[in-house]
Recover the amino acids of this structure.
C-alpha cells in the first residue's frame, strides 16, 4: 500500500472521526467496535473526496489499490468472492458526509451483480430473489450512476404490472421479472450508448466516482448554501457487505426511532416490511407495518432489536434513528444516527433524559435548537391534515391561519370587525395597511423579503405571514389572484402557513400552541444559566401581558407610532399634522393626550415591577397622511363628478401638506429625534402621558419604571435638548399630581455617529438600546426594503454576505460598531445599561453575540421570548466552555 491512507475498515474507526469518515461511516465504525451485529465494510475518507477534486476529478494515487485490498478483506471475512458466480459477494455503496446532507447520492444496493453472478445467486438462493436484486441494481445504478431517468425504469415496471393486471411488483412472475431485467438493460444501453457494465470492479469504481460527484450536484450545493455547510468538507463513501431482507418470510427490513420523533414519548417508533429490501420502506411501494408487528412475528428478533436500541441510546446519550435488516432470522444493524425530531419532541426528550440521568441540564439546553421552538409558539396546521398546497413563499412569520381572501386593508378591517376571518393579500404592505393587518388572521404578499414591512409587522404582532410568494399574481381591479391557471377570488378561503411558506386552498385544521410542562422546565433551567436579560417589544397591554406570561422581564421597546395609526387616532393625528398654528396643533395634541395616557397606563400596569422602554414618535409625519397620488386622483374625480367645493378644498390642503412633507429618502429624513426638535410639543405630550400614567399607577401602589427613549440620536446635543424637555415635563407632572416617581431617559443607537460618539452621548443617557434595524441600514448604506427586494439574494448566492444582515446581525461591521459603542459608553459611564431591540434581539446567533458584548438584555417580539431565553442560556454555556 502506498502513500496516504484513504480507506478504513469499520474496525479502524470510531464515532469521533466524523470529519474524516463522515457521520454514517463513523457510526458504523463505532457500532462495530461496541460489538453490534454490523455487516462488515469499509469507508473511503472525505479526504479522498477532497483529493479527487484537487486532482481534477480523478482518483488520487493509491486509492484504487487500497479499495481493491479492502475488497479482499471483505471476501476473506465473508467467504464470498466479488464477481464469482459460485458464491458472489455483493455490496452496498452509500454516501456519507460529515454532516447529514439530504440531496447527496442515494444508496446503491446489490452492487457486484451481473448476468453471471445473478445466475449464481439464483442457484444459491432462488431465482425470484436473484432477479429482484438484479433489477433493483440496474434501476439504482442506471439512475444514480449513469444518469438514466428514474421515471423510465418506473414506466417499464408499470407497463408490466398493467399487462398482468396486478398492483405490486412482487405479484409479477419470474418470467415477467426476467423480461423487466432485459428491458432495463436495453434502456441503459439505449440511453447511455453503452451496455450496463458487467465487470463488478468497474461498477464499484463508477459508483464511488458518482458519490464523489454527487457532492457537487445542484441539490447538494443548494442544501449547503441554505444550511451554511462549508463546500470543502467532501463526502465519504461507505462500502458494506449486503445482507438481504428479501430472501423470504424470515427476512425483512425496517427503520425505527428509539423515541417517538413527533412527541418525544419514550417508546420504539418505527416501521418494518417483511421480505423486503431497504428502499421499499422509504419508497412507499408497500405499506410498512408498525414495528410492534415484529414483536408478534419475530419475538426473538424484536427483543434483540429493542436491546440494541437501548444500548445505542445509552451509548450515544441521544435519541437514535436506526436502520436494520433481518436476513434468515438474523438481525443486522445498518445505520444509526441522532434522530431528527420535532421541536416538541426535542424539548421532551432533552428534559426526560435529564430526569433519567442520561445527560446534564446544561447538555439538555444545548440539545434544543432555539430556532426550532418557533414551531411550538404558534397555532399550527394539524400535522395529520391533507393539504391542497397551491403556492409557496417565504416563511416570514410562523403560525398558520385560515380566512377569506381580501385585497384591501380597509375591507380587511371592516370584515374583521364583524368577526369574519380574513387573510390580507397584497403585493406588499405599507404602514397604511396596519389596521388591515391588525384585523386579519394573517398576511400573504407576493413581493418582499423576510424583513419586508409585512414580515416585520406580522412577526411583531405574532401573526402568520407568508411573503415574497412570487407564484401568485394579484389583480386588484378584478379582486382576484392567480397561480398559473388557478383563479382565487375575493372571499375564497385560503390557509397560510408562516412556518413553511405554504399557501393552501380551503381551510386547514389548526391546533393550538401549548407550553408543555417540559418546555416550562427547560426554560426555568435556561433562566438559571443565562446572564442576558430578556425583554419584549410590545405596543399594547395585551402584548405586554403575553410577553410577561412567556417570561419577559420588561419591555425593551414600545413603538408609539402604532398607537397613532389606530383608526380612532389617525384623524386626530392628521389634524395635528395639518395644524396651521401652534394653537391648533396644541388643541389636537390635547385630544391625543388622554388616549396616550391610557395606552401607557395599560402597558406599564401589565409590566408592573419591570422596566418599560417607551420610544417617542419615530416615523416621518407623512406616513400618517394619505398617499399623494391617490389624493390627486380623488381630487380630479371629485371635480369631474361635481363634488362639494368644501371637500375639494380640504383635500387640496391635505395634498399640499403631503407634498410639503414629501422626502427624497424618508429613512434618512425628518424622523426620530429630528421630529422632536422641530415639534417639541409632540414629544412633550407623549412625555406627559407617560408620566401621568406613571403617577396614577404609583398612587395605586404599583411599582413602575418607565424609560423614555429618544430615537435616532446622532449628537449629544440632540439628546441633551430633548432630555431637558422630558425632565421639565416630569417635574411638572410631579408638581401637578404631588406624586414622586422614578424614570430614566435614554437613547437608541441607530446611526454610526451615535456609536462613535457614545462616550459623549452616554453623559446624557441613562441607557442605550441598539436599534439594529436602522443601524444595519445606516452602516451598510442599504435601504432595507430595496435591498431585500432587489439585490440581497444575489449577495447571498455570490457569497458576498454570509447571511441577510437584517435577519442575522452582521458581526463584522455592525457588530464592530456596537463593540466600540459599548466600550466608549461604559468608559464614560460605568454600568451603563445597554440592550438591543432590533429584529436581531430574537435571533439566536445574534443573541450569542450580544452576550459576548456584555449587553444587559435583548428585546424581541413576545412570541420569541422563550427562544431568546434559551438562546441566552446557550450563549452563556458556550462562552463558559470556550472563554475568549
Ligand atoms: C431599529 O431600528 O432597530 C428599531 C428597533 O426601530 P424600528 O425598527 O422601529 O425602526
Ligand atoms: Mg429604528
Amino acid at each position: 500500500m502506498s502513500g496516504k491512507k484513504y480507506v478504513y475498515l469499520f474496525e479502524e474507526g470510531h464515532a469521533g472521526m466524523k470529519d474524516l469518515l463522515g457521520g454514517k461511516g463513523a457510526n458504523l465504525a463505532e457500532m462495530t467496535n461496541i460489538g453490534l451485529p454490523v455487516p462488515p465494510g469499509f469507508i473511503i475518507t472525505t479526504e479522498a473526496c477532497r483529493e479527487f477534486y484537487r486532482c481534477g476529478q480523478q482518483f488520487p494515487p493509491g486509492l484504487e489499490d487500497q479499495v481493491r485490498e479492502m475488497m479482499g478483506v471483505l471476501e476473506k471475512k465473508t467467504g464470498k468472492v466479488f464477481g464469482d458466480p459460485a458464491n458472489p459477494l455483493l455490496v452496498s455503496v452509500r454516501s456519507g458526509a460529515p454532516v447529514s446532507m439530504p440531496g447527496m447520492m442515494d444508496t446503491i444496493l446489490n452492487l457486484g451483480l451481473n448476468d453471471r453472478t445473478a445466475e449464481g445467486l439464483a442457484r444459491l438462493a432462488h431465482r425470484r430473489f436473484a432477479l429482484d436484486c438484479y433489477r433493483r441494481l440496474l434501476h439504482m445504478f442506471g439512475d444514480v450512476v449513469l444518469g438514466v431517468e428514474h421515471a423510465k425504469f418506473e414506466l417499464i415496471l408499470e407497463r408490466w404490472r398493467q399487462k398482468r393486471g396486478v398492483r405490486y411488483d412482487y405479484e409479477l412472475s419470474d418470467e415477467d421479472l426476467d423480461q423487466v431485467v432485459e428491458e432495463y438493460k436495453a434502456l441503459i444501453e439505449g440511453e447511455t450508448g453503452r451496455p450496463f457494465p458487467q465487470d463488478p470492479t468497474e461498477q464499484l469504481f463508477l459508483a464511488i466516482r458518482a458519490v464523489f460527484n454527487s457532492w457537487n450536484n445542484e441539490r447538494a450545493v443548494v442544501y449547503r448554501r441554505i444550511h451554511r455547510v462549508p463546500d470543502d468538507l467532501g463526502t465519504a463513501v461507505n462500502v458494506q457487505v449486503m445482507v438481504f431482507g428479501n430472501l423470504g418470510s424470515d427476512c425483512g427490513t425496517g427503520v425505527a426511532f428509539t423515541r417517538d420523533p413527533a412527541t418525544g414519548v419514550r417508546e420504539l417508533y418505527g416501521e418494518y416490511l417483511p421480505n423486503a429490501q431497504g428502499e421499499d420502506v422509504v419508497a412507499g411501494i408497500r405499506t410498512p407495518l408498525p414495528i410492534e408487528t415484529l414483536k408478534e412475528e419475530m419475538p426473538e428478533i424484536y427483543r434483540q432489536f429493542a436491546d440494541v436500541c437501548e444500548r445505542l441510546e445509552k451509548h450515544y446519550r441521544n435519541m437514535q434513528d436506526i436502520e436494520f435488516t433481518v436476513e434468515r432470522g438474523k438481525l443486522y444493524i445498518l445505520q444509526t444516527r441522532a434522530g431528527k425530531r420535532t421541536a416538541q419532541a426535542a424539548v421532551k426528550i432533552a428534559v426526560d433524559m435529564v430526569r433519567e440521568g442520561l445527560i446534564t441540564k446544561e447538555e439538555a439546553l444545548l440539545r434544543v435548537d432555539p430556532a426550532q421552538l418557533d414551531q411550538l409558539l404558534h397555532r399550527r396546521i394539524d400535522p395529520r391534515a391533507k393539504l391542497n398546497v397551491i403556492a409557496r413563499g417565504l416563511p416570514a412569520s410562523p403560525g398558520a391561519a385560515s380566512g377569506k381572501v381580501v385585497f384591501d386593508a380597509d375591507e380587511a378591517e371592516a370584515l374583521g370587525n364583524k368577526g369574519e376571518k380574513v387573510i390580507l393579500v397584497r403585493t406588499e404592505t405599507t404602514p397604511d395597511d396596519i389596521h388591515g393587518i391588525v384585523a386579519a388572521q394573517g398576511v400573504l404578499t407576493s413581493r418582499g423579503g423576510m424583513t419586508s414591512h409585512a414580515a416585520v409587522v406580522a412577526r411583531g404582532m405574532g401573526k402568520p405571514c407568508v411573503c415574497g410568494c412570487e407564484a401568485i399574481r394579484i389583480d386588484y381591479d378584478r379582486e382576484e389572484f392567480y397561480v398559473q391557471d388557478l383563479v382565487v377570488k375575493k372571499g375564497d378561503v385560503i390557509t397560510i402557513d408562516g412556518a413553511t411558506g405554504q399557501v393552501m386552498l380551503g381551510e386547514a385544521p389548526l391546533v393550538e400552541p401549548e407550553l408543555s410542562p417540559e418546555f416550562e422546565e427547560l426554560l426555568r433551567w435556561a433562566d438559571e444559566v443565562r446572564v442576558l436579560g430578556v425583554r419584549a417589544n410590545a405596543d399594547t397591554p395585551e402584548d405586554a401581558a403575553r410577553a410577561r406570561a412567556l417570561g419577559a422581564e420588561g419591555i425593551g421597546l414600545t413603538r408609539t407610532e402604532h398607537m397613532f395609526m389606530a383608526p380612532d387616532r389617525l384623524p386626530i393625528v392628521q389634524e395635528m399634522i395639518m395644524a396651521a398654528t401652534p394653537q391648533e396643533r396644541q388643541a389636537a395634541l390635547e385630544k391625543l393626550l388622554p388616549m396616550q395616557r391610557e395606552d401607557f397606563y395599560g402597558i406599564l400596569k401589565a409590566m408592573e415591577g419591570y422596566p418599560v422602554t417607551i420610544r417617542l414618535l419615530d416615523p416621518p409625519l407623512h406616513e400618517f397622511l394619505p398617499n399623494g397620488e391617490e389624493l390627486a386622483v380623488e381630487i380630479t374625480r371629485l371635480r369631474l363628478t361635481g363634488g362639494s367645493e368644501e371637500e375639494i378644498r380640504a383635500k387640496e390642503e391635505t395634498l399640499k401638506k403631503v407634498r410639503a412633507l414629501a422626502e427624497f429618502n424618508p429613512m434618512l429624513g425628518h424622523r426620530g429625534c429630528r421630529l422632536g426638535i422641530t415639534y417639541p410639543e409632540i414629544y412633550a405630550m407623549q412625555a406627559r402621558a407617560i408620566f401621568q400614567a406613571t403617577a396614577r399607577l404609583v398612587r395605586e401602589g404599583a411599582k413602575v419604571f418607565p424609560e423614555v427613549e429618544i430615537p435616532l440620536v446622532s449628537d449629544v446635543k440632540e439628546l441633551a435638548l430633548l432630555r431637558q424637555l422630558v425632565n421639565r415635563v416630569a417635574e411638572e407632572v410631579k408638581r401637578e399630581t404631588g406624586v414622586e416617581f422614578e424614570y430614566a431617559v435614554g437613547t437608541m443607537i441607530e446611526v454610526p455617529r451615535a456609536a462613535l460618539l457614545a462616550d459623549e452621548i452616554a453623559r446624557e443617557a441613562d441607557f442605550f438600546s441598539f436599534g439594529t434595524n436602522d443601524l444595519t441600514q445606516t452602516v451598510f448604506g442599504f435601504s432595507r426594503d430595496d435591498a431585500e427586494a432587489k439585490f440581497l439574494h444575489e449577495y447571498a448566492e455570490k457569497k458576498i454576505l454570509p447571511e441577510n444582515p437584517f435577519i442575522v446581525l452582521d458581526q463584522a461591521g455592525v457588530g464592530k460598531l456596537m463593540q466600540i459603542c459599548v466600550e466608549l459608553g461604559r468608559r464614560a459611564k460605568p454600568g451603563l445599561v445597554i440592550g438591543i431591540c432590533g429584529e436581531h434581539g430574537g435571533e439566536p446567533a445574534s443573541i450569542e453575540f450580544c452576550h459576548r458584548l456584555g449587553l444587559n438584555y435583548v428585546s424581541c417580539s413576545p412570541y420569541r421570548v422563550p427562544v431568546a431565553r434559551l438562546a441566552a442560556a446557550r450563549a452563556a454555556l458556550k462562552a463558559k466552555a470556550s472563554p475568549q
Notes: Residues 582-606 form the longest helix (25 residues). DSSP finds 35 helices and 31 strands in the chain.
